[in-house]
Amino acid sequence: MPKVSVIIPAYNAMTYLPETVESVLRQTFTDFEVLIIDDGSSDNIVQWVSELEDPRVKLISQDNQGVSVARNTAIAHAQGEYLAFLDADDLWAPTKLEKQVICLDRHPSVGLVHTWMVFIDREGKSTGRVMTSNAEGDAKKQLLEKNMVACSSVMVRRCCLQTVGGFEPNLHFAEDWDMWIRISSHYPFAVIKEPLYYYRQVPNSLSKNLQVLEQAFYFVIEKAFRSVPPELLYLKNHSYGYANLCLAWKALQSSCRDCNLAYSYRQQAISYYPQLRYTREYMRLSMAITALQLFGNDSYSKLLELAYALRRRILNVPKLNSTNSFSLVDKSTQ
């Protein structure tokens, strides 16, 4: 019986999946199984997995039903005491599993442990940005306000999911946020304050994803606040504010970079939670919208590259190996 089950949903993911799996196989902790859920893909994933020599990697195929159902399928097949989630285009630092297993072994009351996150571009190059989180202990209040836990950074005890149930099958976005809120109602969280997870930013089609993401955010917020005590209801407007701030960023990061839509979401954010205008994230967003308006899409993209290069130089962020993007070097907190 493996100690850890690594769960990777995959839908036409072969562009990055080999690197993703390689980052798992290079873990310093080795007592794991890898469950890849082929969610109705039309690429060559079946052939690719069949040619892998590592017996820890297993493929489970199903009709296309979305990421939540894919993860639930894997959970039903998982044999590990601990479950670790990984998206098919993201990467892990080599010591990620080892440090999380140590944390859960040493702290039996903790139900979920997550890590900090580094942003990388589609080529696997660091943007120089590290997303930190202090969601630990009783994290429910923090999670009601906004999602501070990246899915691919998480390791959770399987017994937690037996308590709270699986991922919401009707959600294709924000399903992890819904799950973390439910777990936080029963178990303390822990965080390893090191960037051990690499999130790949790949521009998506705005028309296909953003409206669904908005609906998912609102679904999770309404569901979560149906059962909170009265003294926490004030957080609902905070939650809508942060959700709209995230949507504004997504509009800028989409393949078509819709400046007007980003501006609209930003205004909705401060209408729900006016104090957001004083946060660093709001100020960064406003600068990005202004830059896109002034310089246009092409020049804005070049400015981003310059900003990433400058940030990598100023901040000593984790660096990717020069020969392959899945060989990663850990650094301490930024």
Compact description:
With 334 residues, the protein is α/β, with parallel strands linked by helices. The chain has helices spanning 17-25, 45-50, 67-77, 96-106, 140-145, 158-164, 175-184, 206-224, 235-253, 259-272, 280-314, and strands at residues 4-10, 32-39, 57-62, 82-85, 91-92, 112-120, 126-131, 155-157, 189-200. It is 44% helix and 17% strand.
CATH superfamily membership of the largest domain, which one?
A: Spore Coat Polysaccharide Biosynthesis Protein SpsA, Chain A
Radius of gyration, taken over Cα atoms and rounded to an integer in Å: 20 Å
Structure summary, number of beta strands: 9
Low-confidence stretches: 321-334
Query: Any guess at the CATH architecture of the largest domain?
Result: Alpha-Beta Complex
The whole-number mean of residue pLDDT values reads 90
Helix fraction? 40-55%
Domain Glycosyltransferase 2-like: 5-133
Keywords: Transferase
Protein name: Glycosyl transferase
Pfam families: Glycos_transf_2
